[in-house]
Amino acid sequence: MPGMPQNKAKIVMQPDTGVKFSDVAGIDEAKEELTEVVDFLRAPERFVKVGAKIPKGVLLTGPPGTGKTLMAKALAGESGVPFIQASAAEFIEMFVGVGASRVRDIFKQAKEKAPCIVFIDEIDAIGRQRGAGMGGGNDEREQTLNQILTEMDGFEGNTGVIVVAATNRADVLDSALLRPGRFDRRVEVGLPDVRGREQILAVHSKNKKLADDLTLADVARRTAGMSGADLENLMNESAILTARRSKTATTMDEINDATDRIIAGLAGRALSDNASKRLIAYHEAGHALVGTLLPYHDPVNKVTLVPRGQAKGLTWFTPSEDQSLVSANSLKARIAGALGGRAAERVVFGESQVTTGAGGDLQQVERIARAMVTQLGMSDVGCMALDDGGMMGPNYSEEVSAKVDEAIRQLSDDGYKVALDIMTDYRACLDRLADELVETETISGDRLRELVAEYTTVPQKLAAV
């Protein structure tokens, strides 16, 4: 068609992305899978000799920032074969048929230069489940998807062309796209564990001067749950703080301040109102005291009255290890810990003087308790996973709904009772923590545990269990 927009993706004969597999850390399993793809392309005869077929597609899935696109860049840099990169969104145009035409054009180029790699980023833009839209199967997106399906495993086939795609929404992809013969390999690029974070930090600190007493292992333990992109940003923010403070090397102070800034926002001006400062001190001391005394709670890393974002004060908890599996005891302890601030306000200032400071805590409690009841089977409602149904409403009866509400309330009430008991039993310790917070504004986790140890030698047992 005259004037039809043509494909913007160009073939790169000798990819020079500046990224090799040695530059990718923390995702060893994904790296191993793609290293195998490079071996397929470089020496296919080894695999053909034993009757193995080269995989036609590799799908990289995982949360944002975990390194999916970086892996594709490393694959291009390592493979030494022609490489085509395109974003799935580039295929979608106003004119019906343009996307399918662009797909044909890309695969035509790839077949001519085979062996060749085609990388499609954010494939969920066109690869969503068909039949759910208003187009009746004839809209532009579905035609584009149909063309990709045909090119990957159609009548002609695509010998020598490997398609690598990335998405963080694998759950919405069409089943025909995921079947063997199209995407033969599905590689999960997840959040790194503590060892992986240490490796990633080593990569991003190569050109940075670190203090002699700073160990990346300590930083890795502090940054549980962060992705590779988060860790890169952390090291950059730390370097910026180092320069701003006219230091020659980054210390743990810069790392901690950068971590706080990334998670909670910029530090605000310290409180000058003594009444408000004391109330917030008791609130944060309540969180910290419950978190320290309950055996299944994550350890306290720091308590501070320095405002960040919407929070007037913060209590940081750092998991002692990566927690892909969390016990019911730990979740109940987190509920009690989140309610420790409200419990401290009630015990110290009275029921009528509790403040809105627990608003975010109550939302956190509701999220944890609802997940325990409706998704994790950790309540009297039973071992069921209940779907809320979205816009259509819940897919369970009103009787079950009433049981769910009661179970959530019970978990919250039990956690609040545990927190109140701790505030009452250890009131002297609570007062001491609040006084020191008002004076110093920040207490480290180690200092907190020293203070608590002066008032107790036996850990409080979780009464709700």
From TrEMBL:
Its cofactor is Zn(2+). It comes from the Eukaryota. Gene3D superfamilies: 1.10.8.60, P-loop containing nucleotide triphosphate hydrolases, Peptidase M41. Its main location: membrane. PROSITE patterns: AAA. GO terms for molecular function: ATP binding; ATP hydrolysis activity; ATP-dependent peptidase activity; metal ion binding; metalloendopeptidase activity. Residues 54-193 form the AAA+ ATPase domain. InterPro entries: AAA+_ATPase, AAA_lid_3, ATPase_AAA_core, ATPase_AAA_CS, FtsH, P-loop_NTPase, Peptidase_M41, Peptidase_M41-like. One of its GO terms (cellular component) is chloroplast thylakoid membrane. Keywords: ATP-binding, Hydrolase, Membrane, Metal-binding, Metalloprotease, Nucleotide-binding, Protease, Thylakoid, Transmembrane, Transmembrane helix, Zinc. It is found in: Membrane. It holds the Pfam family Peptidase_M41. GO terms for biological process: proteolysis; PSII associated light-harvesting complex II catabolic process. Belongs to the AAA ATPase family. In the C-terminal section; belongs to the peptidase M41 family. PANTHER family: ATP-DEPENDENT ZINC METALLOPROTEASE FTSH 2, CHLOROPLASTIC, METALLOPROTEASE M41 FTSH. This is AAA+ ATPase domain-containing protein. It comes from Polarella glacialis (Dinoflagellate). The lineage of its organism: Eukaryota, Sar, Alveolata, Dinophyceae, Suessiales.
